[in-house]
Each structure stands twice: as C-alpha cells, then as structure tokens.
C-alpha cells in the first residue's frame, strides 16, 4: 500500500515525509513540479535514488491529463493533498495562477483519486485564511464560523474546502478537510512574516543586511503551531475513524500579535541593535487579523496535542536561517 504526498518538497510536505518515513513502513510517493528545489528533502535523496521506499515523480497538478496519467500507475491508501500556491501576499499579484493551482489542482487530484483510488482516505488541506476577517465576538473561531476570505489565496482555499466536502457528499470519497492555523518552523518560506523576520535577523548577524528589519502589518493576531506537530495531526486525522467530508480547525496554543513574534525573535539574536521599519510592499490590501482557533472538535476526535513549545519553534526557525545563510554565503548579496 502507498501514501501520496502532493507538494512533497514544501515545508509541510517535507516534514510529513520525515515523519512517515521514520514512523511507518509504507511506500511513499511524492509529486512535485520539475523545477521544484529538492533541498527540503535532501536527507531522502539516497533512498529515492536507490528506488527504495520513497519515489518522486514530476507532475503539475494543474495539468488534468498529467494527473490522470500519474494516478493510473498507482493505488493509494492515503493521500495528503498539500500542493498549493500558498502565499497570501503573492496571490494579490497573481490571482489567476493561485486559482488555477489551488482550485483546478484540487479538482484534478480528487477526480483522479475517485477514478483510480476510490477507497483512499484523502486529506484536503484548506486553510484558516478561509475565515478571513472575523469579528471579535466570533473568536475563538470554530468550524461553523462563516467564510470571509481576505485575499485571492483565501478565496481559492474556500473553493478547495468546498470541493473536498463536495466529493464526499456526491461520490462518497473519504475526504478529510483541515483548516490549519499558522504553523511554522524549519524550512518555512521567507514570504511568511515570522520566517522573513528570522531570515533578516540571520542576514544581519552575518553582515549581509543593515540592522533594520522590514516588516508589514504588526497588529494582526496569530496562533502559532510547530510544523512538526502539524504533520502528526495530519497522520492522526486519517487514522482516527475518518468520516467522509469531515472538517476540522487545527492550531497551536500560543496566540499573540505579530509585533510580539518579531520582538521574541529579535530577543534571540546575537545582535543588540536591531530595529524595524514598515515596508509598504509587505502590507496586504486587506488582512485576516484575528486568527485564533477553537480546536476542540479535532482534539476530541483524535486526542492530538501540540507538544513543541513556541520558544523552541522560534529558535529552530532562526537556526534554520542561520545555517542556510552560512551554507549559501555570498549568494544572498545578489538578492
């Protein structure tokens, strides 16, 4: 029996690969675009090259024929659909690409699953961004809170969420939909607020940037989870009596303003003179500013608990960027 991970080279996909390889005996198949960097899964390249338990195939999920051809060669027990254009800020400039990847891509994956692996349990990764702008009286956010998307990315994830539930109701496909709130850690992309803060701090420490961090909106509230806890939640999701069409909020225990996350990261720096300045290019036209979840439904179902402390997550994120900058050296001068 096989497990599929779409978006296997991304932050979440690569951590899920680590977890599944270390904790299961399943054969793991990953798909990514041909140009996707492999650095996040570099630990597993020897296993891929020797054609062991891990295999990697190139496939663009927007290509329905390519997706169909890929699925025709496999029979999956579990499918983790993580591939997406996942950057809200970028989606304002590239809405069509975002819609095509996240909406058409999800439709292609689920249609092919229904055709070739109809018994599979499918995790469809939605997002907390579907809730968008939430009034204070609806916080913490539960699963029945109305969608109010605040970006093209969030709009696309509303569709992803609904497509996942549609395939369960119309075709009895065993889809499990998650709205994961902010999750971070090593390998987090530098377009996300806490990761760009950590990257800039590491650049400052190594002399590649003046001691001024460029920031966007610091007033938004975020609830932080560690990506390594997140992938454990996803494994529990598909292994705890999954009921077709179920949907869950998942998130960490630490809720705070973005400004506090920034200050906590600065406090971890070896430099004592770091300042920050608002960069208008980093501000969204509209923001989801109260991202605080009620996760009781998921916890009652699975018994999941976030275990990695917020402080450890920030340290590991900063150390990830420190090591990356040491490894890549002067290439950062060209960016």
Beta-strand proportion: 15-25%
Element-level helix/strand string: EHEHEHEHHEHEEHEEHEEHEEHH
Total E-strand runs: 13
Strand order of the largest sheet: 3-2-1-4-5-6-10
Give the terminus-to-terminus CA distance.
44 Å
Please compute the radius of gyration using only Cα atoms.
20 Å
Tell me the structural class: alpha/beta
Let me know the average pLDDT: 96
- What share of the residues lie within helices? 40-55%
What is the CATH-assigned architecture of the domain at 2-184 and 226-250?
Answer: 3-Layer(aba) Sandwich
What are the low-pLDDT stretches, counting only 5+ consecutive residues below 50?
Answer: none
Shape: globular
Q: Report the CATH C-level class of the domain at 2-184 and 226-250.
A: Alpha Beta
CATH superfamily of the domain at 2-184 and 226-250: NAD(P)-binding Rossmann-like Domain
What is the count of helical runs?
Answer: 11
Describe the structure.
It is globular and about 60 Å long. It is built from 11 helices and 13 strands. The strands form 3 sheets. The chain has a 7-stranded parallel sheet, with helices on both faces. The termini are far apart. The chain has helices at residues 11-23, 45-49, 64-71, 88-93, 95-116, 152-171, 193-205, 227-239, 258-267, 296-302, 310-328, and strands at 2-6, 27-32, 54-58, 76-81, 121-125, 174-180, 183-184, 212-215, 221-226, 246-250, 254-257, 275-278, 290-291. The longest helix has 22 residues, at 95-116. The chain is α/β, with parallel strands linked by helices and 335 residues long. The protein has a domain at 2-184 and 226-250: Rossmann fold.
